[in-house]
């Protein structure tokens, strides 16, 4: 997608830690014709590893394959996949978005000055809200880093500061 690599490079150069957060509900959703999940855990792991190979700026990707939000997988470039189980299933801590579990797993025990979730679905916005972090729509974010596009539509001063890497 246009602008993604340039945008990730920009934030990496600013010292941001970049992670991917993905729901992979296809691992739990049953295909009615086969009575099997649409996607296996192994397929999801392969897909996420391929994403890490394409987006070198990412530290890791985590994904939740179950609707109940009890399991999260954490994938690094050069390490085996790590499965993390959770016993607390409150909406706030549930791993799949719009729950904040995957985000809070990253944020725990860290002092972070600023955190943003860039997303393309309402549950991404909900997860950011649940975690108490800022959110921006991916199309707005990508436009900032796409060659030839000089117009982007931030909705707040905070988004302008984030997109431009400045403080107003």
Summarize the structure.
The chain is an alpha/beta fold and 168 residues long. It has helices at 4-13, 41-54, 101-107, 122-131, 138-144, 157-164, and strands at residues 19-23, 30-31, 36-37, 60-64, 71-75, 82-85, 116-119, 134-137. It contains six helices and eight strands.
Please characterize this protein's 3D structure.
- The protein is α/β, with parallel strands linked by helices and 168 residues long.
- It has one domain: Rossmann fold (3-Layer(aba) Sandwich), CATH 3.40.50.
- 33% of the residues lie in helices and 18% in strands.
- The protein contains 6 helices and 8 strands.
- The protein has helices spanning 4-13, 41-54, 101-107, 122-131, 138-144, 157-164; strands at residues 19-23, 30-31, 36-37, 60-64, 71-75, 82-85, 116-119, 134-137.
- A 4-stranded mixed beta sheet has the order 1-4-5-6, with helices on one face. Strands 2-3 form a two-stranded antiparallel sheet.
- The protein is globular and about 50 Å long.
- The mean pLDDT is 89.
Overview features:
alpha/beta; two-stranded antiparallel ribbon; 8 strands; 6 helices
Write the layout of secondary structure elements.
Elements lengths: L3 H10 L5 E5 L6 E2 L4 E2 L3 H14 L5 E5 L6 E5 L6 E4 L15 H7 L8 E4 L2 H10 L2 E4 H7 L12 H8 L4
Parallel strand pairs: 1-4, 7-8
Antiparallel strand pairs: 2-3, 4-5, 5-6
């Amino acid at each position: 997608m246009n602008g993604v690599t340039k945008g990730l490079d920009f934030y990496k150069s600013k010292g941001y830690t970049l992670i991917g957060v993905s729901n992979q509900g296809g691992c739990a959703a049953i295909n009615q014709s086969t009575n099997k999940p649409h996607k296996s855990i192994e397929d999801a792991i392969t897909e996420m590893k391929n994403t890490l190979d394409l987006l070198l700026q990412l530290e890791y990707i985590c994904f939740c394959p179950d609707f109940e939000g009890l399991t999260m997988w954490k994938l690094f470039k050069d390490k085996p996949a790590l499965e993390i189980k959770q016993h607390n299933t409150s909406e706030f801590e549930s791993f799949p978005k719009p729950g904040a579990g995957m985000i809070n797993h990253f944020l725990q025990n860290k002092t972070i000055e600023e955190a943003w979730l860039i997303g393309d679905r309402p549950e991404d916005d909900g997860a950011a809200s649940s975690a108490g972090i800022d959110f921006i729509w991916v199309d707005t974010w990508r436009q900032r880093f796409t060659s030839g596009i000089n117009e982007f539509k931030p909705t707040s001063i905070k988004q302008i500061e984030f997109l431009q890497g400045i403080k107003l």
